[in-house]
Design goal:
Number of strands: 9
Shape: elongated
Distance between the termini: 74 Å
Order of helices and strands: EEEHEEEEHEE
CATH topology of the largest domain: CPE0013-like fold
Largest sheet: 4 strands, antiparallel
Mean pLDDT: 89
CATH architecture of the largest domain: Roll
Strand order of the largest sheet: 5-6-9-8
Low-confidence stretches: 132-138
Structural class: alpha+beta
Number of domains: 2
Helix content: 10-25%
Oligomer: single chain
Radius of gyration: 22 Å
CATH class of the largest domain: Alpha Beta
Length: 138
Amino acid sequence: MSRRHAVLQFVCIACPIGCRLTVETDGREAVSVEGNRCARGEVYGGEEVLAPKRLVTAVVPTGSSVFPCAPVRTDGPVPRALVSGLLSELYGRIALLPVRRGQVLIEDFHGVRVVFTRTLPPDEVPPVGKTGPETKGH
């Protein structure tokens, strides 16, 4: 098996600086990373060339007319090749309300969890000033 030498240039997204990286690879590992102004850039440059990963944010349908979607995110990066599969799985689900921020929707998707990022009340929210069934008699 032959090694494929490559030199790639791209903008680092590991921190707010946005350094222009030049990464040289032999096809199996990053031989050099240049242009980074922090240590995170060196790590990001090597990973981005050989095994890119992304944090995923999305919305999941709820079936509610009041809150039609619930926002979710992964709690860690997902290999880029798996992102479309994760999105397909998320868009194929229906989240039942109520949900709370931090509540787990998917416990293990290739080593990461998918959690809700916003608390949403039950579908039927009583109008302001009215009491709902959960508060009657208190």
